[in-house]
Amino acid sequence: MNKITRKFFAILLSCMLVVAGVAMPAKTTDNAVIAAENVAKTGTVTMTVERITIGQGYLVSPVQVEIQNGDTVDTVFKRVMDAKGFKYDDNGYLASIENADTGKINIPAEISAMPDTTVWGNPNPVKAPTNTANDGNSYANKGLGSSSYHTMAGWMFTINNVFSNEGAASTPVKDGDVIRWQFSVYGYGADIGSDTESYTGIKKVTFANKDELIKEAATLVNNKTMMKDANVKVEYNNAIKVLEKYNPSETEVKNELTKLKNVQKDFVKKTTVTKASVKGLKAKVAVKKIKGVTGYQYKYSNNKKFKKAVVKSIKKNTLTTKKFKKNQKCYVTVRAYKKVNGIKYYGRWSKVKAVKIKK
What we know:
Distance between the termini: 86 Å
Largest sheet: 5 strands, mixed
Number of strands: 18
Shape: elongated
Order of helices and strands: HEEHEEHEEEEEEHHHHHEEEEEEEE
Helix content: 10-25%
Radius of gyration: 26 Å
Low-confidence stretches: 1-27
Structural class: alpha+beta
Number of helices: 8
Strand order of the largest sheet: 2-1-10-8-9
Protein backbone atom coordinates (compact mmCIF):
# COMPACT_ATOMS: atom_id res chain seq x y z
CA MET A 1 0.00 0.00 0.00
CA ASN A 2 1.58 3.35 -1.03
CA LYS A 3 1.80 6.36 1.28
CA ILE A 4 -1.23 8.16 -0.18
CA THR A 5 -3.38 5.05 0.04
CA ARG A 6 -2.35 4.46 3.63
CA LYS A 7 -3.31 8.01 4.57
CA PHE A 8 -6.65 7.68 2.79
CA PHE A 9 -7.30 4.38 4.55
CA ALA A 10 -6.60 5.90 7.98
CA ILE A 11 -8.82 8.96 7.43
CA LEU A 12 -11.80 7.15 5.92
CA LEU A 13 -11.97 4.36 8.44
CA SER A 14 -11.03 6.58 11.39
CA CYS A 15 -10.11 3.64 13.51
CA MET A 16 -6.37 3.21 13.42
CA LEU A 17 -4.39 3.17 16.61
CA VAL A 18 -2.05 6.06 17.46
CA VAL A 19 0.61 4.77 19.80
CA ALA A 20 3.71 6.11 21.52
CA GLY A 21 6.86 4.37 22.65
CA VAL A 22 6.30 0.95 24.16
CA ALA A 23 7.86 -0.42 27.33
CA MET A 24 7.56 -4.19 27.53
CA PRO A 25 6.67 -5.57 30.98
CA ALA A 26 6.64 -9.23 31.95
CA LYS A 27 4.47 -11.30 29.64
CA THR A 28 1.04 -12.40 30.84
CA THR A 29 -0.25 -15.41 28.94
CA ASP A 30 -3.47 -16.13 30.82
CA ASN A 31 -6.72 -14.18 30.68
CA ALA A 32 -6.73 -12.72 34.17
CA VAL A 33 -8.13 -9.20 34.40
CA ILE A 34 -5.57 -6.79 32.94
CA ALA A 35 -5.10 -4.28 35.75
CA ALA A 36 -5.04 -0.52 35.40
CA GLU A 37 -2.13 1.46 36.81
CA ASN A 38 -1.97 2.30 40.51
CA VAL A 39 -4.91 4.69 40.36
CA ALA A 40 -8.61 4.35 41.07
CA LYS A 41 -10.32 2.19 38.49
CA THR A 42 -13.62 3.37 37.00
CA GLY A 43 -14.84 0.06 35.62
CA THR A 44 -14.01 -2.89 33.42
CA VAL A 45 -14.17 -3.38 29.65
CA THR A 46 -13.73 -6.47 27.49
CA MET A 47 -11.29 -6.68 24.57
CA THR A 48 -10.35 -9.13 21.81
CA VAL A 49 -7.83 -9.17 18.96
CA GLU A 50 -9.15 -11.27 16.07
CA ARG A 51 -7.69 -12.83 12.91
CA ILE A 52 -10.85 -14.66 11.89
CA THR A 53 -10.80 -13.34 8.32
CA ILE A 54 -7.67 -15.36 7.63
CA GLY A 55 -8.79 -18.39 9.62
CA GLN A 56 -6.45 -17.89 12.58
CA GLY A 57 -9.06 -17.19 15.26
CA TYR A 58 -8.10 -15.09 18.28
CA LEU A 59 -4.72 -13.54 18.87
CA VAL A 60 -6.13 -12.26 22.17
CA SER A 61 -9.22 -14.16 23.29
CA PRO A 62 -11.89 -12.32 25.35
CA VAL A 63 -10.21 -10.62 28.29
CA GLN A 64 -11.39 -8.18 30.94
CA VAL A 65 -9.46 -4.93 31.33
CA GLU A 66 -9.64 -2.49 34.22
CA ILE A 67 -10.05 1.15 33.14
CA GLN A 68 -9.40 4.50 34.75
CA ASN A 69 -10.30 8.12 34.04
CA GLY A 70 -9.12 9.25 30.62
CA ASP A 71 -8.81 5.79 29.12
CA THR A 72 -9.47 5.34 25.40
CA VAL A 73 -9.51 2.40 23.00
CA ASP A 74 -5.84 3.26 22.41
CA THR A 75 -4.76 3.02 26.07
CA VAL A 76 -6.79 -0.15 26.66
CA PHE A 77 -5.16 -1.79 23.63
CA LYS A 78 -1.69 -0.90 24.86
CA ARG A 79 -2.45 -2.11 28.38
CA VAL A 80 -3.50 -5.53 27.09
CA MET A 81 -0.80 -5.98 24.47
CA ASP A 82 1.98 -4.81 26.79
CA ALA A 83 0.79 -7.15 29.55
CA LYS A 84 0.75 -10.07 27.13
CA GLY A 85 4.17 -9.24 25.72
CA PHE A 86 3.18 -8.32 22.16
CA LYS A 87 5.18 -5.76 20.20
CA TYR A 88 3.29 -3.59 17.74
CA ASP A 89 4.30 -1.00 15.16
CA ASP A 90 2.68 2.34 14.43
CA ASN A 91 2.89 4.78 11.57
CA GLY A 92 0.17 7.14 12.70
CA TYR A 93 -2.11 4.10 13.06
CA LEU A 94 -1.77 0.46 14.04
CA ALA A 95 0.43 -0.75 11.22
CA SER A 96 1.17 -4.26 12.46
CA ILE A 97 1.47 -6.60 15.40
CA GLU A 98 4.48 -8.90 15.69
CA ASN A 99 3.99 -12.65 16.14
CA ALA A 100 0.36 -12.30 15.04
CA ASP A 101 0.54 -14.42 11.87
CA THR A 102 0.94 -18.18 12.03
CA GLY A 103 1.67 -18.30 8.31
CA LYS A 104 -1.23 -20.67 7.68
CA ILE A 105 -4.30 -18.96 6.25
CA ASN A 106 -7.81 -20.21 5.69
CA ILE A 107 -9.71 -17.30 4.21
CA PRO A 108 -13.49 -17.88 4.41
CA ALA A 109 -15.15 -18.63 1.07
CA GLU A 110 -17.57 -15.76 1.69
CA ILE A 111 -14.66 -13.30 1.55
CA SER A 112 -13.02 -14.89 -1.48
CA ALA A 113 -16.35 -14.65 -3.33
CA MET A 114 -16.59 -10.88 -2.85
CA PRO A 115 -16.62 -8.84 -6.08
CA ASP A 116 -13.59 -7.26 -7.74
CA THR A 117 -12.97 -3.60 -7.01
CA THR A 118 -10.38 -0.86 -7.46
CA VAL A 119 -8.02 0.55 -4.87
CA TRP A 120 -8.12 4.31 -4.51
CA GLY A 121 -5.40 5.84 -6.67
CA ASN A 122 -4.98 2.66 -8.72
CA PRO A 123 -7.23 2.16 -11.79
CA ASN A 124 -6.44 -1.54 -12.11
CA PRO A 125 -9.10 -3.85 -10.66
CA VAL A 126 -8.17 -6.11 -7.78
CA LYS A 127 -9.67 -9.41 -6.77
CA ALA A 128 -10.58 -10.71 -3.35
CA PRO A 129 -7.84 -12.87 -1.80
CA THR A 130 -8.07 -16.65 -1.69
CA ASN A 131 -5.92 -19.22 0.04
CA THR A 132 -3.94 -19.75 -3.17
CA ALA A 133 -4.13 -16.30 -4.80
CA ASN A 134 -3.21 -13.45 -2.47
CA ASP A 135 -0.51 -10.82 -1.95
CA GLY A 136 1.32 -12.80 0.71
CA ASN A 137 2.73 -11.30 3.88
CA SER A 138 6.12 -9.60 3.90
CA TYR A 139 6.27 -8.45 7.53
CA ALA A 140 9.22 -9.63 9.58
CA ASN A 141 8.82 -11.41 12.91
CA LYS A 142 5.50 -12.96 11.86
CA GLY A 143 3.92 -9.52 11.80
CA LEU A 144 0.35 -9.01 10.61
CA GLY A 145 -0.83 -5.61 9.44
CA SER A 146 -1.56 -3.23 6.59
CA SER A 147 -1.38 -4.96 3.18
CA SER A 148 -0.88 -8.43 4.66
CA TYR A 149 -2.33 -10.86 2.09
CA HIS A 150 -4.10 -7.99 0.26
CA THR A 151 -3.47 -4.34 -0.50
CA MET A 152 -6.79 -3.41 1.19
CA ALA A 153 -5.97 -5.18 4.46
CA GLY A 154 -5.45 -3.66 7.90
CA TRP A 155 -6.46 -3.55 11.55
CA MET A 156 -9.77 -1.97 12.60
CA PHE A 157 -11.85 -1.87 15.77
CA THR A 158 -15.45 -1.73 16.94
CA ILE A 159 -16.73 -0.56 20.29
CA ASN A 160 -20.06 -2.08 21.32
CA ASN A 161 -20.41 -3.51 17.80
CA VAL A 162 -20.08 -0.09 16.12
CA PHE A 163 -17.18 1.16 14.03
CA SER A 164 -16.04 4.42 15.61
CA ASN A 165 -16.01 7.69 13.67
CA GLU A 166 -12.90 8.67 15.61
CA GLY A 167 -9.44 7.21 15.91
CA ALA A 168 -8.61 4.85 18.77
CA ALA A 169 -6.81 7.57 20.74
CA SER A 170 -9.91 9.79 20.48
CA THR A 171 -12.49 7.15 21.37
CA PRO A 172 -13.20 7.09 25.14
CA VAL A 173 -14.25 3.94 26.94
CA LYS A 174 -16.65 3.34 29.80
CA ASP A 175 -17.54 0.50 32.13
CA GLY A 176 -19.07 -2.47 30.29
CA ASP A 177 -17.79 -1.63 26.79
CA VAL A 178 -16.74 -4.40 24.40
CA ILE A 179 -13.77 -3.55 22.14
CA ARG A 180 -12.97 -5.84 19.23
CA TRP A 181 -9.79 -5.33 17.20
CA GLN A 182 -10.29 -7.21 13.94
CA PHE A 183 -8.00 -7.84 11.00
CA SER A 184 -9.74 -6.95 7.74
CA VAL A 185 -8.22 -8.71 4.74
CA TYR A 186 -10.42 -7.23 1.98
CA GLY A 187 -12.59 -4.23 1.24
CA TYR A 188 -11.15 -1.85 3.84
CA GLY A 189 -13.39 -3.50 6.42
CA ALA A 190 -16.32 -4.67 4.28
CA ASP A 191 -15.37 -8.25 5.21
CA ILE A 192 -15.86 -7.48 8.92
CA GLY A 193 -19.04 -5.43 8.60
CA SER A 194 -17.82 -1.88 7.95
CA ASP A 195 -19.84 0.04 5.35
CA THR A 196 -17.31 0.99 2.68
CA GLU A 197 -19.56 0.38 -0.33
CA SER A 198 -19.69 4.06 -1.36
CA TYR A 199 -15.99 4.05 -2.27
CA THR A 200 -15.18 0.37 -2.78
CA GLY A 201 -18.36 -0.90 -4.40
CA ILE A 202 -18.24 -3.87 -2.03
CA LYS A 203 -21.32 -4.55 0.05
CA LYS A 204 -20.50 -5.15 3.70
CA VAL A 205 -21.05 -8.56 5.28
CA THR A 206 -23.78 -8.56 7.94
CA PHE A 207 -22.93 -10.41 11.13
CA ALA A 208 -24.60 -11.58 14.32
CA ASN A 209 -23.68 -9.45 17.32
CA LYS A 210 -21.11 -11.42 19.32
CA ASP A 211 -20.56 -8.82 22.05
CA GLU A 212 -22.64 -10.39 24.85
CA LEU A 213 -21.10 -13.81 24.30
CA ILE A 214 -17.62 -12.25 24.23
CA LYS A 215 -18.31 -10.45 27.52
CA GLU A 216 -19.70 -13.58 29.16
CA ALA A 217 -16.69 -15.64 28.06
CA ALA A 218 -14.25 -13.03 29.39
CA THR A 219 -16.05 -12.87 32.74
CA LEU A 220 -16.12 -16.65 33.06
CA VAL A 221 -12.51 -17.39 32.13
CA ASN A 222 -11.39 -14.97 34.82
CA ASN A 223 -13.27 -17.06 37.40
CA LYS A 224 -10.56 -19.59 38.30
CA THR A 225 -12.82 -21.49 40.70
CA MET A 226 -15.58 -22.07 38.18
CA MET A 227 -13.17 -22.86 35.34
CA LYS A 228 -11.91 -25.86 37.33
CA ASP A 229 -15.31 -27.48 36.75
CA ALA A 230 -15.07 -29.84 33.75
CA ASN A 231 -18.52 -28.98 32.36
CA VAL A 232 -17.90 -25.26 32.64
CA LYS A 233 -14.56 -25.55 30.86
CA VAL A 234 -16.07 -27.59 28.02
CA GLU A 235 -18.84 -25.04 27.47
CA TYR A 236 -16.34 -22.17 27.57
CA ASN A 237 -14.34 -23.89 24.81
CA ASN A 238 -17.56 -24.37 22.83
CA ALA A 239 -18.26 -20.66 23.16
CA ILE A 240 -14.81 -19.80 21.82
CA LYS A 241 -15.40 -22.09 18.84
CA VAL A 242 -18.61 -20.22 18.02
CA LEU A 243 -16.91 -16.85 18.46
CA GLU A 244 -14.05 -17.85 16.16
CA LYS A 245 -16.45 -18.77 13.36
CA TYR A 246 -16.38 -16.19 10.59
CA ASN A 247 -20.14 -15.72 10.35
CA PRO A 248 -22.23 -17.77 12.79
CA SER A 249 -25.97 -17.18 12.79
CA GLU A 250 -27.69 -14.98 15.36
CA THR A 251 -29.46 -18.08 16.67
CA GLU A 252 -26.19 -19.97 17.12
CA VAL A 253 -24.65 -17.08 19.06
CA LYS A 254 -27.72 -16.63 21.28
CA ASN A 255 -28.01 -20.36 21.95
CA GLU A 256 -24.37 -20.57 22.99
CA LEU A 257 -24.80 -17.57 25.29
CA THR A 258 -27.71 -19.36 26.97
CA LYS A 259 -25.67 -22.56 27.32
CA LEU A 260 -22.73 -20.68 28.80
CA LYS A 261 -24.93 -19.00 31.39
CA ASN A 262 -26.75 -22.22 32.23
CA VAL A 263 -23.59 -24.25 32.78
CA GLN A 264 -22.51 -21.65 35.35
CA LYS A 265 -25.83 -22.07 37.15
CA ASP A 266 -25.26 -25.81 37.13
CA PHE A 267 -21.91 -25.30 38.86
CA VAL A 268 -24.06 -25.56 41.99
CA LYS A 269 -26.50 -28.47 41.81
CA LYS A 270 -30.21 -27.72 41.52
CA THR A 271 -32.14 -27.93 44.77
CA THR A 272 -35.19 -30.16 45.32
CA VAL A 273 -37.91 -29.24 47.81
CA THR A 274 -38.72 -32.53 49.58
CA LYS A 275 -41.41 -31.30 51.92
CA ALA A 276 -43.66 -28.29 52.49
CA SER A 277 -46.01 -28.69 55.43
CA VAL A 278 -48.14 -26.42 57.59
CA LYS A 279 -47.40 -25.61 61.21
CA GLY A 280 -49.98 -23.25 62.64
CA LEU A 281 -50.12 -20.31 60.24
CA LYS A 282 -46.60 -20.97 59.05
CA ALA A 283 -45.14 -23.24 56.38
CA LYS A 284 -42.24 -25.53 57.12
CA VAL A 285 -40.01 -26.21 54.11
CA ALA A 286 -37.35 -28.89 53.74
CA VAL A 287 -34.91 -29.42 50.86
CA LYS A 288 -32.65 -32.31 49.95
CA LYS A 289 -29.15 -31.76 51.32
CA ILE A 290 -26.46 -31.10 48.73
CA LYS A 291 -22.89 -32.02 49.57
CA GLY A 292 -20.36 -29.20 49.44
CA VAL A 293 -22.72 -26.21 49.37
CA THR A 294 -22.49 -23.31 51.82
CA GLY A 295 -26.22 -22.86 52.27
CA TYR A 296 -29.65 -22.43 50.73
CA GLN A 297 -31.58 -19.37 49.62
CA TYR A 298 -35.34 -19.58 50.19
CA LYS A 299 -37.88 -17.38 48.45
CA TYR A 300 -41.55 -17.51 49.43
CA SER A 301 -44.70 -15.48 48.89
CA ASN A 302 -48.49 -15.68 49.06
CA ASN A 303 -48.74 -15.45 45.25
CA LYS A 304 -47.29 -17.55 42.46
CA LYS A 305 -45.63 -14.54 40.81
CA PHE A 306 -43.61 -13.99 44.00
CA LYS A 307 -44.59 -10.35 44.38
CA LYS A 308 -43.22 -8.90 47.61
CA ALA A 309 -41.49 -12.20 48.24
CA VAL A 310 -39.44 -12.91 51.35
CA VAL A 311 -35.89 -14.02 50.53
CA LYS A 312 -33.71 -15.60 53.18
CA SER A 313 -30.31 -17.31 53.00
CA ILE A 314 -29.39 -19.80 55.73
CA LYS A 315 -27.12 -22.81 56.17
CA LYS A 316 -29.90 -25.18 57.22
CA ASN A 317 -31.86 -27.26 54.75
CA THR A 318 -35.10 -26.45 56.55
CA LEU A 319 -36.95 -23.18 57.02
CA THR A 320 -40.09 -22.11 58.85
CA THR A 321 -41.76 -19.11 57.21
CA LYS A 322 -43.35 -16.10 58.81
CA LYS A 323 -47.08 -16.21 59.54
CA PHE A 324 -49.62 -16.28 56.70
CA LYS A 325 -53.35 -15.63 56.82
CA LYS A 326 -55.70 -18.56 57.06
CA ASN A 327 -56.54 -20.14 53.66
CA GLN A 328 -53.68 -18.32 51.93
CA LYS A 329 -51.24 -20.36 49.90
CA CYS A 330 -47.50 -20.33 50.49
CA TYR A 331 -45.46 -20.56 47.29
CA VAL A 332 -41.81 -21.42 47.85
CA THR A 333 -38.71 -22.04 45.74
CA VAL A 334 -35.14 -22.70 46.89
CA ARG A 335 -31.65 -22.65 45.43
CA ALA A 336 -28.33 -23.73 46.89
CA TYR A 337 -25.18 -21.62 46.88
CA LYS A 338 -21.46 -21.98 47.35
CA LYS A 339 -19.30 -19.23 48.79
CA VAL A 340 -15.75 -19.22 47.43
CA ASN A 341 -13.26 -16.43 48.20
CA GLY A 342 -16.09 -14.18 49.30
CA ILE A 343 -18.17 -14.74 46.16
CA LYS A 344 -21.51 -16.56 46.20
CA TYR A 345 -22.30 -18.90 43.32
CA TYR A 346 -25.97 -19.79 43.02
CA GLY A 347 -27.56 -22.86 41.48
CA ARG A 348 -30.91 -22.95 39.70
CA TRP A 349 -34.15 -22.35 41.54
CA SER A 350 -36.10 -25.46 42.44
CA LYS A 351 -39.58 -26.17 41.16
CA VAL A 352 -42.15 -24.07 42.96
CA LYS A 353 -43.91 -25.86 45.81
CA ALA A 354 -47.31 -24.63 47.08
CA VAL A 355 -49.06 -25.44 50.34
CA LYS A 356 -52.34 -24.11 51.71
CA ILE A 357 -52.23 -22.46 55.14
CA LYS A 358 -54.88 -23.69 57.55
CA LYS A 359 -55.13 -24.38 61.23
